[in-house]
Amino acid sequence: LIVDKIDKDEDGFVNQEELKDWIQFTQKRYIVDDVERQWKTHNPENKEKITWDEYKKMVYGFMDGQYRDMDQNELDKDEEGFSYQNMLRRDRRRWDVADTDGDSALTHEEFSGFLHPEETGHMRDIVVLETMEDIDKDKDGKISLPEYIGDMYRGSDGEDEPEWVKNEREQFSTYRDKDGDGFMDQEEVKNWIIPPDFDHALAESRHLIYESDSDADQKLTKEEILNKYDLFVGSQATDFGEALARHDEF
């Protein structure tokens, strides 16, 4: 059923362009759905804007004075950089960047930028900043190789490192750390997580065709896709798992 949906020109094949279009469609749909759902949750009366105070009360209300159901130690507790106080500060900072007219309230469009900053031009620097804060454990404003690896892999003593971790070490020194000083600075982190001119949908469609195209004709039959169904269902990009559950798709 899904393959028929992707095959726009109904020629019995899924080509790269059709697959790329489907991936872009599912990504967009996920974001629209997510924003809509959260907008309704935080703004049940569907007012034009959500104020910071309304959002804070709904998400962090449990931290406030008389309603508080956690003691101060719990709120300040910092395990692996996680604390509610820290989350609140980060949310407020992100809110202020999303709030383009500076009135401390977000329109539907601004709220979308707040929830999905990676999709919104002027919000991308905050994604870089948050990533830096998460990985930079010694807070020196840059990311070392141990911090970079430690974010993805925590091996136990004496355990052999998996091959992919060795590959990531090479990635760090060859591609991530462009000036070769042993660290990733803010600009290098930006190039890593938001590479300029990188088309995620195009890259994923190429990868899926490369992995599934058994006769190497650069297009996929329904049979070729079904033979690799686990690859497609497992791909976040195609969102097949979600599409199967959505009856409105059909």
From TrEMBL:
Domain of life of the source: Eukaryota
Residue ranges occupied by any EF-hand domain in the UniProt entry: 1-29, 123-158
| Matches recorded under InterPro entries | EF-hand-dom_pair, EF_Hand_1_Ca_BS, EF_hand_dom
Keyword annotations for this protein, in alphabetical order, are:
Calcium
Q: Which PANTHER family match?
A: IP16409P, RETICULOCALBIN
The protein here is known as EF-hand domain-containing protein
